[in-house]
Design brief:
By secondary structure, this protein is an all-alpha fold. Helices cover 65% and strands 0% of the residues.
Length: 177
Amino acid sequence: MNTNTNISTPKYINPYFGGVLLGLLLLVTFFITGRGLGASGAVKSAVVTTVDKVAPVHAEESEFYSKFITDSQSPMFNWLVFESIGMFFGGLLSGAIFGRIGKFRVEKSPKITSKTRLIFAGIGGVLFGIGSQFGRGCSSGAALSGTGSFAFGGFLVMMFMFGTGYLFAWFFRKLWI
């Protein structure tokens, strides 16, 4: 019998408790802001601010960018930007508390290289970002907040997001198992 206690496995929050906390956060967000959670709005604010600083004439003449640019307030002064900053530091704090910060490692299948895993993860991230713009919001905004407010569109997004994920998972399973 092996009783080696030196093996350290990363600790994660109980998923049921995490779900309850996420639901409470969503409820508080609806109460305070009148809308749900989402992260793509922070990226949009960063892009609008960058374009406004690099090419202000283009930003003012653009139908898209000009909607978000005002003289009184920066697009970066948006609660979604602060939410995203909070998510980053909250994830960092969680990793530090539960011992997941340390040597950089890539979780992958032993059948592929770390480089392949990172390339496909990057491609997936880019496609997800493009899809969030076509869908006018990220999955957390559309699915989580949509179903939280009992919007029919939120339920559709949730079904299609997970359904598509299950369909594509069979083809790309070798990237992680």
